[in-house]
Structure formats: structure tokens, C-alpha cells
Amino acid sequence: MNKIFKYFIIAMTCIVTFSLQAHNASAYFGINVYVANGQTQSYHSDAIIQNGVTLVPLRGVFETLGATVSWNAKDKTITAKNSTKTVWLMVGSKKAKINGNALAVSEAPIIKSGTTLVPLRFISEALGATVSWNQDSHDVSIYAKGSSQVERSHWLGYYTNPGYTGTGVITSLRIDKVTPTKITFTSVNGYRYDPTNGTLAGGQMPWHHDYTTRDAQLISEDVASYELNGCSFDLVKYYDEIHVENMYGSCGHLGLGEYEGEYTEYRKFEN
């Protein structure tokens, strides 16, 4: 009886541990970050929550807020500057400086999948921005001084292609940045692969992602035109969809799904 009880406790411990690991992993997804600095806006989907602190991608957020960013690979330090502030941080350390004055951050900066992530609220407020959090949509909004009344661009966000997305494949489109004259888009293509040559199956396989980032010129509020290296098409905004229309030439290198009929459709992904 004691042995049975012992094995029961061990089994329950494993189940609880697995559940906690799954819960902690889920905390790393679904955080959308929108940044506004006047008429320049950006979107970032790789923010995470760690130990209750939101960490955001360093370069994209800083640069939209008008700061220049430098990275010292040797000592893993980050320096961000705008017209009035100089912020210094070190990966793996809670020590920080603003204009040379030492202080501590709530969570140390980290590097995840090649992206440097830094504490959202500290960095944003250190650069004079304001931060708001929407619990329902898991959205973070960051506003540079004087930008809080700017209406969020209807382009920004993450869109999936339902016709070319399955259990082992992801074909998606991310609108990263919008200015009065252009949008910056990233084609994201992912697929599962088996690095063990046959011992893994289905959800056991890790993901590989390919990213291609380009600019398209805005020719109207809802149409952006792309043309480069013999490839041309229009990105057309319809409510929460983006259609790839009028595609000509060799565009396979962009990974925008397979072009069929009048357009290829991408639907906005909501958490």
C-alpha cells in the first residue's frame, strides 16, 4: 500500500510539474506591442512576460521612440540615446544607468532567439514615453511624448494565410511599421522539421522560421505597392484582412504564399 501511495505521489508530482512548465511556456506568447511616435508607428509580436515583467524587443521599440541604439557584443551592454537621455543596460544584469546615474531594473535584459529583450516600463519611461496595458487583448501601447492621441494604424498587426497554414506549416504576414509614405512588412514562413532523421513525429518536431522584410510604398490609405527585382504586387487592406493583388514577376523569394486567382488572403490574428 505504501509503495502504491509512493508511486501515486511521484506520478502526481510529474503531472503538476509538466502543467506548470506548460503554463510558464504559454506566458511567452500573445503579447502585442504597439509604439507611436507622431505619425510613425510600429508593431512587435515577440514580447514576453518573465517573472511578471514584460520584456520587449530592444531595437524596434527604441528606434520608433526616436532613440539610437548601440550594442557592445563583447561585454553585452546596450546604450540607447535620444535628445535628452542616455540609457545603459547589461544583458543578464539588473544594474542600469540613466544619464550616468545608477539604478536597478526589475528584470535583467535577456537574449531570446537572437533578439535582445529589455524591461518595457523602465525603458519606455526612461525615454520619456508613456505605457498602457490592455488586459483583455494583451496589448501594450507605448506613446512618445505628445503621441497618445494618435489613432492606431489599421495596418499594424499579425496576419495568417488560412489557405497555406496547417499543423506543420505557418505562412503569415506581419506589418511591422507604418509611416505617412510607406509600410514595412515581414513575410514569416515556418515549418516543422526532424533533426533526428525519423525519431520525432508531429508536435515533437521543432519549428524553423524564415523571415523576409521589405518596404511597400503607400499609394492610398488602404493600398501599398511593392516593386523590386522583377517582382511587383499590391497589398490591399480590407477590414481585418490584407490581400496580395496584381502580382507579377518572380516573387517566390518573398514567401507570400502561393498566388492563385485574383488575390492571396491574409487574415488578422487575434489573441
Automatic annotation (TrEMBL):
A Pfam family that the UniProt record links to this protein: Cu_amine_oxidN1
Keywords: Signal
Signal peptide feature range: 1-22
Superkingdom: Bacteria
UniProt name for this protein: Copper amine oxidase N-terminal domain-containing protein
Chain ranges of the Copper amine oxidase-like N-terminal domain: 36-142
Gene3D superfamilies per the UniProt record, alphabetical: Copper amine oxidase-like, N-terminal domain
Organism annotation: Lysinibacillus agricola
InterPro entries according to UniProt: Cu_amine_oxidase-like_N, Mao_N_sf
